[in-house]
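User: quick one, fold this
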Amino acid sequence: MLLKTYEAQNLLCNLSVKGPTSQAGTEAYRGDLVLTEGEIADDAGRRLPPTAVVKQATLLVKDGKISMISGIVAHLAEVPLFVERYRNDLAADIRVLFYVEDLTKSLTTDLDGVGIILLPHPDGGAAWNTLMDDLRLDKEDFKGQSAEDKVITMAEGLAAYKPKFDSLSFSECLAFVSKVQREHRGPV
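Assistant:
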């Protein structure tokens, strides 16, 4: 139900997986999650592309609340946008792991009561595969599962993941932002 609401609000894009899991009251999503919508482009109310997203997000919704999210964020400064925008939809025990393209050090932080694991992601790469490696999961762990149930397995792995990184306030984390810009890829 929550994912249908997000879809109606155009907060989901580049959809890969969206649907119910084998667990009652649990939905899974893989795709991009909008943090900041684009400007209104015309009189019909159509919008430009979003200006900030959680790329390749993996989301698990249990009983109408987000219980797990992971994905790639371009800039550390965009992380608070997630908490601000989705605050009312977050489970009390939510697990959050973001790969941050301009971060130079692995850290944990607490942002307005939400614990967040922050990992550098300077080289790009698929968030799902990187998360599998970090959680020490392999293809056998997902064998025979539907695409939606694989998100449950990933969420269980993240729940068991207890990294020993420095825990800093979010403002202290901003000291570990790289000034180097990633090279844009694609046609010129």
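User: anything notable?
Assistant: The chain is about 20% helix and 35% strand.
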